[in-house]
């Protein structure tokens, strides 16, 4: 090796201080995730994380793959293929149980939120010439403030269920659109790069198009959450600047990408069983307005709910002020563009939900997450040195005298002198450092018991009631049936001999979020009837059905449900015939060849 070639540095050297800074940011975000999840586990949100009929979808999909069943799933409009399923597969690979995988996935969601906010904040600092120095520290701080705000809002939520005004906690689950929230934050970073003058715009536009395609393929709601707001924002920026190249490129990338993603969904028709009129209720605006109004009124009945609304309103106001002041001063200000996109997103999503007659609060997630992204960008872009200089320039020059012990001491002090401003700034930095240290210490103190709580919950069997069914079904070659809200948790946490199918109370197939292939050649031998409270307040009408089947072989009483055993009785044939015939009809309608 020659002397010249020996001096060539192939791998760029990253300062150890920066590595420690970035690692500390990730660790702190993970700690906040553990604290938020522990809070949810300790209260009414536990079922939402571990047992909810929708939350356990991905574990059921993985179990179906493991059992070698053909893919004949009946999905809602959301496919959860990007990035939810890959994230859950990673979580399931490094854990030993479903509960542990779901909880680890929740922590990963928070860490990824921090990472994506870090990318947004990094783009803002890189595109803001006045704050390039120490930009990494500013970006980490901004991302931590945004992630910390999310964690605090989660701690204010205490109500059960997934369709309430408390929607921040939904992000901790695997199937309440956390992946689309991630796509929204990632798209924000790419959009601000394109609109604020970033380099390599071709690569950024391609990345935005790819992201939009994958996100729309997985969840068409991306069109309302991202495509629409970006379209409006790009047009506004084009009008403000009277320059159209970058806005049009941004608009083209997101629209073309979303179009490709939606087109890729068309061949998946047999797997999408939801009807459009269930989601696009054009005549349901009044009902939608009443639904969201009721959710808001219930939310503010608690102190935590009122604080949550107050924080959200404050963040909205911060975004409005930031967009107006920054874009008026400089029309390509990166943080101002993030704030503008946040405002547009809030307005477009709110209007869009009302126009489509929405009756689900989870669709409003961008209304609370977009202002958090703007908060992270605002903190990262704050140039306290420039603020100090402006403060010094505006302070009047005064002379301050004082008398002590009857003697006059002549002297003067310039209140606006560089020394005074420097002392003021140093004092402010000490206060900020003290607050930051206090937050870190408080987080670490809270993270220790929170980690123990999350680990204990992950080590448990998830739904304790499933153990009774697991013990009873061991060695029995039979399939059971139950209603959706009863069967999901039992099937998820039951042993290898537990095989359950979800049906309506008339024994017809309920194909929602289940694999129709499991119904093929099934031998139905028992019915599970809920005896306790059903999650979400749902009701069952099984009494007449079970009575009509006749006298069972046995009835086993478990915690919250009964196992009504019809194996070996004349009712087993009637059970099997009713369920399999219904499944045959469903398969024919969806074009599956049985």
UniProtKB/TrEMBL annotation:
Keywords: Membrane, Transmembrane, Transmembrane helix. Signal peptide: none annotated. Residues 398-419 are annotated as: Disordered. It comes from the Bacteria. Residues 408-419 have a biased composition (Low complexity). The chain crosses the membrane at residues 19-42, 87-117, 138-156, 176-196, 201-217, 223-240, 247-264, 309-327, 334-357, 363-384, 429-448. This is 4-amino-4-deoxy-L-arabinose transferase-like glycosyltransferase. It comes from Frondihabitans australicus.
């Amino acid at each position: 090796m020659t002397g010249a070639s020996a001096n060539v540095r192939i791998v760029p050297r990253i300062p150890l201080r920066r590595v420690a800074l970035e690692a500390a940011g990730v660790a702190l975000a993970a700690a906040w995730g553990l604290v938020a999840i522990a809070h949810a586990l300790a209260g009414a949100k536990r079922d939402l994380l571990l047992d909810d009929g929708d939350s356990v979808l991905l574990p059921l999909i993985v179990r179906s793959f493991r059992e070698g069943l053909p893919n004949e799933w009946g999905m809602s409009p959301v496919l959860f293929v990007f990035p939810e399923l890959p994230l859950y597969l990673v979580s399931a690979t490094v854990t030993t149980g479903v509960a542990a995988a779901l909880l680890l996935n929740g922590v990963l969601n928070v860490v990824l939120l921090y990472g994506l906010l870090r990318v947004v904040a990094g783009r803002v600092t890189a595109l803001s010439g006045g704050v390039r120095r120490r930009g990494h520290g500013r970006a980490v701080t901004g991302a931590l403030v945004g992630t910390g705000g999310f964690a605090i809002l989660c701690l204010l939520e205490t109500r059960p269920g997934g369709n309430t005004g408390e929607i921040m906690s939904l992000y901790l689950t695997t199937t309440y659109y956390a992946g689309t929230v991630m796509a929204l934050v990632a798209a924000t970073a790419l959009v601000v790069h394109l609109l604020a003058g970033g380099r390599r715009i071709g690569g950024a536009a391609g990345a935005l198009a790819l992201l939009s395609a994958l996100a729309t393929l997985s969840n068409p709601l991306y069109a309302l959450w991202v495509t629409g707001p970006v379209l409006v924002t790009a047009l506004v920026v084009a009008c403000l600047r009277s320059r159209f190249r970058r806005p049009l490129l941004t608009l083209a990338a997101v629209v073309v990408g979303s179009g490709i993603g939606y087109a890729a969904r068309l061949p998946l028709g047999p797997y999408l069983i939801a009807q459009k009129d269930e989601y696009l209720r054009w005549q349901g605006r009044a009902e939608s307005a009443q639904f969201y109004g009721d959710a808001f009124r219930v939310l503010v009945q608690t102190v935590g709910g009122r604080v949550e609304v107050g924080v959200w309103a404050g963040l909205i106001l911060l975004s409005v002020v930031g967009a107006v002041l920054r874009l008026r001063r400089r029309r390509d200000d990166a943080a101002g563009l993030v704030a503008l996109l946040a405002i547009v997103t809030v307005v477009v999503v709110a209007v869009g939900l009302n126009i489509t007659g929405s009756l689900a609060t989870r669709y409003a997630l961008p209304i609370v997450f977009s202002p958090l992204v703007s908060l992270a960008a605002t903190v990262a872009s704050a140039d306290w040195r420039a603020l100090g200089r402006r403060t010094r320039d505006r302070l009047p020059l005064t002379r301050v005298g004082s008398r002590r012990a009857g003697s006059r001491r002549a002297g003067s002090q310039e209140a606006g002198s560089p020394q005074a401003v420097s002392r003021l700034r140093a004092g402010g930095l000490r206060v900020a450092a003290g607050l930051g240290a206090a937050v870190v210490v408080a987080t670490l103190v809270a993270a220790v018991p929170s980690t123990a709580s999350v680990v204990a919950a992950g080590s448990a069997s998830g739904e304790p009631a499933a153990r009774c069914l697991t013990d009873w079904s061991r060695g029995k070659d039979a399939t059971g049936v139950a209603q959706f809200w009863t069967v999901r948790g039992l099937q998820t946490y039951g042993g290898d001999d537990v095989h359950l199918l979800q049906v309506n109370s008339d024994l017809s197939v309920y194909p929602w979020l289940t694999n129709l292939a499991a119904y093929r050649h099934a031998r139905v031998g028992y019915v599970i009837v809920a005896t306790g409270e059903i999650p979400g307040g749902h009701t069952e009408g099984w009494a007449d059905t079970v009575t009509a089947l006749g006298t069972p072989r046995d009835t086993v009483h478990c915690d919250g449900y009964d196992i009504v055993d019809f194996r070996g009785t004349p009712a087993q044939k009637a059970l099997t015939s009713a369920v399999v015939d219904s499944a045959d009809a469903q398969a024919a309608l969806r074009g599956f060849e049985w």
